[in-house]
Amino acid sequence: MAIDPTGADLKRFLAEDPGGPVVMLNLLRFAEGGRASYEQYSNAIRDTFLPRYGAEVVYAGSGTTALVAEPGQEWDAVLLVRYPSREAFSRMVADPEYQQFTHFRTEALTEAVLQPTTPW
Predict the structure, then answer these.
(1) Contact, 41 vs 105, CB < 8 A?
(2) pTM: predicted TM-score of the whole model, two decimal places
(3) d(Cα 4, Cα 78) in Å, to the nearest integer?
(4) What CATH number has the domain spanning 7-65+74-117?
């Protein structure tokens, strides 16, 4: 399962940029014991990198029993993060200091969806 964006993913993400802010939808499925590792990643990102790149957490919450979903479609956590632009997100994930923390996210998850959204 995909966990982290690839270079090709980021290239397409930037090529499809409609301009303006982007809210990234994160759907997260944790590995056994993964919440603690994700918390280490989350603390570093929230306190250091999101402010550095003008981003903010809009919503973060735990998933509960799905009301409407096929078996296996429920998620452990949902996160919405607003970035001022797709370029700001791309610069953040390319930051060598940020990359020192990404292994906590990768180790924490068995599956993830990272989907950019644009306002209607």
Answers:
(1) yes
(2) 0.91
(3) 16
(4) 3.30.70.100
